[in-house]
Amino acid sequence: xxxxxxxxxxxxxxxxTPPRLLLGPGPSNAHPRVLxxxxxxxxGHLDPAFLAIMGEVxxxxxxxxxxxxxxxxxxxxxxxxxxxAAVANTVxxxxxxxxxxxxxxxxxxxxxxxxxxAEVHRLDRAWGEAFSFDEISExxxxxxxxxxxxxxxxxxxxxxxxxxxVSELCREHDCLLLIDTVTSLGGVPLFLDExxxxxxxxxxxxxxxxxxxxxxxxxxxxxxERLAARKTKVPNWYLDMSLVGQYWGKERTYHHTxxxxxxxxxxxxxxxxxxxxxxARWERHARNARLLWDGLGEMGLACHVDEAIRLPSLxxxxxxxxxxxxxxxxxxxxxxxxxxAGGLGELKGKVWRVGLMGFNSREENVRLLLSALAExx
Length: 377
Description:
Elements: E1 21-22, H1 32-38, H2 48-65, E2 71-76, H3 79-90, E3 96-101, H4 104-115, E4 119-124, H5 133-143, E5 147-151, E6 153-154, E7 159-160, H6 166-172, E8 176-180, H7 192-195, E9 199-201, E10 214-219, H8 221-228, H9 241-248, H10 260-276, H11 278-298, E11 314-318, H12 325-336, E12 338-339, E13 341-342, E14 351-355, H13 363-376
Parallel strand pairs: 1-12, 3-4, 3-5, 5-8, 8-9
Antiparallel strand pairs: 2-10, 6-7, 9-10, 11-14, 13-14
């Protein structure tokens, strides 16, 4: 045999991560109970004990989303995997789709849909604004899309997209309604069945206060019918819900080895949601966001998004003239171990993004951030 090359056999020490308070756009700090759950001993992915856990995760996800959809699963991958699964399973080559682009993640949906061969029609708005019903209606009537894709909670801007009347419009035109709830699930009111949403996806690392690694996804009856009637196979084997759904469905047929411990963590995160109750959880996020917004106003700082559509889970703060946005973020981390992120894309250097999500949405965190930010400025 050849001799072993030890070039990359580097000496390392025990892992010792800094105690950051993650008040950026995600990940948020995981709840201590979630971290404990992650450390539980593994069982097999077809073990009866794990199959029971799978069922509990699905039921609790249905509660968090307020849906009865049978196909409600945590995709084995981060929120972007759930985003891609949503697109891959609903879009076929040549399909007309309308995508609302008012931030970074609308742009990502355009990229994904284009890669799957869709005929993409952009509906554009300035970053930080939302679409009116009339704008959405005009685009749907003009382009006759098979799928309308909207970002309910735009992580890059902190804007919430109103959905009143959109599902009725989609049904009138035989169009699926697909929404991004990555920064709203568990922190902002969501009623998928009541609102007629056909497809939604999310991530674990924001308002659910679980580490990144799973991507909740739900398909309503119309989306399941569309999936079954496809002319071509879903072009992504790993994310094909007609296959993955058999593992998460009654059959529990092997598809891939699920991330066992991540599902332990998600189960505990969703238990915390259920214990607190959605109404109380939404009210807590709104209350702490109001405390932040009022405090920023007292400091002379302005929010980028109009209050009527502002997310309580994520706030964009306009950077004052003459202030180096990146330098302020670096100083907050260096002095106080607080993460506060800058803007993306069109908003780079123009805003800071503050996340008050899940476990991190607490009054003491708001007051600490306001005090530290005032001192650094």
